[in-house]
Amino acid sequence: xxxxxxxxxxxxxxxxxxxxxxxxxxxxxxxxxxxxxxxxxxxxxxxxxxxxxxxxxxxxxxxxxxxxxxxxxxxxxxxxxxxxxxxxxxxxxxxxxxxxxxxxxxxxxxxxxxxxxxxxxxxxxxxxxxxxxxxxxxxxxxxxxxxxxxxxxxxxxxxxxxxxxxxxxxxxxxxxxxxxxxxxxxxxxxxxxxxxxxxxxxxxxxxxxxxxxxxxxxxxxxxxxxxxxxxxxxxxxxxxxxxxxxxxxxxxxxxxxxxxxxxxxxxxxxxxxxxxxxxxxxxxxxxxxxxxxxxxxxxxxxxxxxxxxxxxxxxxxxxxxxxxxxxxxxxxxxxxxxxxxxxxxxxxxxxxxxxxxxxxxxxxxxxxxxxxxxxxxxxxxxxxxxxxxxxxxxxxxxxxxxxxxxxxxxxxxxxxxxxxxxxxxxxxxxxxxxxxxxxxxxxxxxxxxxxxxxxxxxxxxxxxxxxxxxxxxxxxxxxxxxxxxxxxxxxxxxxxxxxxxxxxxxxxxxxxxxxxxxxxxxxxxxxxxxxxxxxxxxxxxxxxxxxxxxxxxxxxxxxxxxxxxxxxxxxxxxxxxxxxxxxxxxxxxxxxxxxxxxxxxxxxxxxxxxxxxxxxxxxxxxxxxxxxxxxxxxxxxxxxxxxxxxxxxxxxxxxxxxxxxxxxxxxxxxxxxxxxxxxxxxx
Length: 683
Ligand SMILES: Cc1ncc(COP(=O)(O)O)c(C=O)c1O
Known about the structure:
The strands form 5 sheets. This protein has a 7-stranded mixed β-sheet with strand order 5-4-1-6-8-7-9, sandwiched between helices. Strands 13-19-18-17-16-14-15 form a 7-stranded mixed β-sheet, sandwiched between helices. The protein folds into 3 domains: 2-262, Spore Coat Polysaccharide Biosynthesis Protein SpsA, Chain A; 278-339 and 568-671, Alpha-Beta Complex (Aspartate Aminotransferase, domain 1), CATH 3.90.1150; 356-548, Aspartate Aminotransferase, domain 2 (3-Layer(aba) Sandwich), CATH 3.40.640. The protein has 25 helices and 23 strands. By secondary structure, the chain is of the alpha/beta class. Helix 18 (465-478) links the parallel strand 16 (454-459) and strand 17. Helix 22 runs parallel beside helix 24.
């Protein structure tokens, strides 16, 4: 068993030419890296992989002078260079089952030997050794990033690298060495070393720009070379003494070039073999092969991806390793994006205290206080787990409060419970007939003879404040409760929900989806005199074993704090408006205005299609070109310029195909039998 650290280094960095041999405290940057790698527990050999370009002669002569093994290979096919270097380091390649490689980069002078050693430990951890695919694995401290940029360590087996070398075809994967491995998580199980010190993921200790050089030089001045490689805590100590150092380079975004490269990458052909195989397997034991109707194969024209393995920000990867800009956002919960550092940290912190308890916790009142502060109608709060939990509780409360049974739904979807569900096979008629349904915006029917029989009017307050006010007045006049179902609009259109945005206050309101950035949590809020009826003597019953589960509560507190602190919702409006305007313009360019239309509000912009075939073709082509979309733009905070560029490129592609299919009257042929079922939401 041998572990080889390979440091990637070249002189030709576009931003800071020659950086790897720049002087830091009397020693070249590369020497800092090599020294740290050599000091790392578990590392047996350290190699440098550089290119064959003449400019890199300086690197190899430095290596020779300092007795460091090196390999020279392609400048652009870095994956090949890396692989060849690994083969050179393992001349006995047969391959030995436990040949471990670490990837380090020559622009990280302050690599921490203990952190490198941590990744080595993880790579060799016991649990792997018994599993069938023990040869394949990927460990790092960057996925997700919790360490400063500049302490990056990635580790994998030689077999993993070999597989990537053989199968990676995208240029970006040949240039970036590990992107192929990282995005094929289903094939290469991943483990991540998490920084025990929270909040360090935005620190920048890497050497990539002139500003970074200034910071690195200051650190090197503070850290005498003779003391050996500094640890992360040593560097933190230097920052404690010189906190303003952070201001020098903090404005440089991370991984900018990678994201730019993704935005410019041509559309590539995707295949979904693993998804298809998994589908066959899952379908045997899971009806629909998914837990959520809207995430099932019924919604996605086949072939298309059916299973995702991981996400980061607004990007997701399927189990075949294909990457998408995610415009579904997990059906709207991911308001900040996947793996948000602050929310995940809050979850980890709570995890350390426990998940579920035998009595209530203080977190409940803490979050309830926040909701009461932000949401106009919220005087009291109860938590559930799903949107259905709380819309159903609201309806039960309304029925008990008014002593009436009938419910009027003004459009929209409100969950899968008997009282509301439109696909009502299995629902007793006696229950269904108590629910009346009118389209959103419809007024005439509300004036029916039954007006005084309704316990509640429930509506999704997505738009049209005049209509919402009309419903408010109507409910007041007829003694019904007005329920705003803000499961979608809450924490998306406004921090106080649509009721705050439009200035119309309901009696009760329900929240879910975005409030905990993906953790399962919902809330029923409302007027004190109604909510109090959940206590004796009435005891209107609403109770669940999992309702006070603490990871979700902690996640919600962190999510709402961040939404408020960073004014995220305004950003959603801005990004959503920009995307909608550009998408609309493209629809007009392709003369498809009578085929594809839009409605809603920018953070949640719905796309409508002339018919189901067009809907299927749109979805198929958007997905094939790298955008996962259902029928709306579910904007999250992580949709940045690069993601929006990629979505618009998908639009351009998909609309071109649709235009062509209409002109040539071959939509069915293009679909090759693929269709999508009706969405769960009728409107
Ligand atoms: C407006 C609205 N209310 C309620 C629900 C039901 O929420 P859940 O699926 O979490 O039960 C949904 C789900 O899409 C919804 O959009």
